[in-house]
Description:
Layout: H1 2-7, H2 14-17, H3 31-41, H4 43-46, E1 64-68, H5 72-88, E2 93-98, H6 107-110, E3 118-123
Antiparallel strand pairs: 1-3, 2-3
Amino acid sequence: xxxxxxxxxxxxxxxxxxxxxxxxxxxxxxxxxxxxxxxxxxxxxxxxxxxxxxxxxxxxxxxxxxxxxxxxxxxxxxxxxxxxxxxxxxxxxxxxxxxxxxxxxxxxxxxxxxxxxxxxxxxxxxxxxxxxxxxxx
Length: 137
């Protein structure tokens, strides 16, 4: 963990780091290590954005996301996930809950979600043919 954090600023292909080959590789990093990397580097830097629907990456929570909308970076991750759902299928967002009130499905299209509260949801691609790698860049 310390080595990756120390060298992170010098890495130029960060999306490759935030993938199952490095950060989300169970033989390299434990769940606690991954939590620590997420805390120290930030959600946006450790999110395996190409595979948000899969359960073999984005450890420790896999395709379940719990994001604090009051934290700018986590809010940007929510914005990204909503954009992917808008491109692929809003039905891929499952079990959505919002601590600050009621989950509004319109947030997927409007991105007009509250600035506080915690959003919890899973991203499940029911039809793998609808996964758009171009829409995830």
